[in-house]
Amino acid sequence: MAPKRPPSKRRRTNSSDDEAPPPSTSPVKEKGNSNEKGDKAPLVVFAHGAGAPSTSDWMVRWKEMIGEALEAVEVVTFDYPYISGGKRKAPPKAEKLVDHHLSVVRDAVAKHPGHPLVLMGKSMGSRVSCMVVGSDEIDVAAVVCLGYPLKGMNGAVRDQTLIQLKVPTMFVQGSKDGFCPLDKLASTRKKMDCTNELHVIDGGDHSFKIGKKFLESSGKTQDQAEKAAVKAIADFISKSIEEN
């Protein structure tokens, strides 16, 4: 007669702190789909400026920095029709770009439903982003303007779009940006009803480029200045989402 085998031990279905869960029940973390923030991970739609497409070095670098700092579910970049296909034409009036921009936002939201939506833009892209915010079709948690072109080519201050904003708005501006004198922006911000903040990149131009002499005198690097701006953006977005 064969000896009896000892009773088999059943696998525990509930795991303790020091016991890893079975492979079939362990959470899977997929980049671009979910992260520790879950549904709180922001979806960012990032628009380029008038003179360079979404594939420019500047846009690619800032897309990567923003995506990492915000732990974004995705940072969506795109090209406006006038600059797509490798053909670069003069940009039309910002108002004529709203419909295309809005269609990109709709598609992004459909792909990542439930995630807080952040609109971000460089120069002209930030101006169009602020126009898109006014659409009743989308719910925007915050808008971030990188080098907002407050002053038009004729020198007139273009503040009407900003004054109408109802969502938290952040400006990142170079102190030497001729398209947005800081004193003019300060006056505009006082007229705005929405929560708004400003981060200044000392010595930065319209694209935040800081001159060599200014960097030497300040003891900082271009990289440090940009990372400080990105951190300020991340803090602002996090706060805006929590308060939304």
From TrEMBL:
| Gene3D superfamilies recorded | alpha/beta hydrolase
Q: Where is the composition biased (Basic residues)?
A: 1-13
What Pfam families would the database entry show?
A: Abhydrolase_11
Classification via InterPro entries: AB_hydrolase_fold, KANL3/Tex30_Abhydrolase, NSL3/Tex30
Q: Which residue stretches belong to region Disordered?
A: 1-39
Which residue ranges does the record assign to the KANL3/Tex30 alpha/beta hydrolase-like domain? 42-237
Q: Where is the composition biased (Basic and acidic residues)?
A: 28-39
The protein depicted here goes by the name KANL3/Tex30 alpha/beta hydrolase-like domain-containing protein
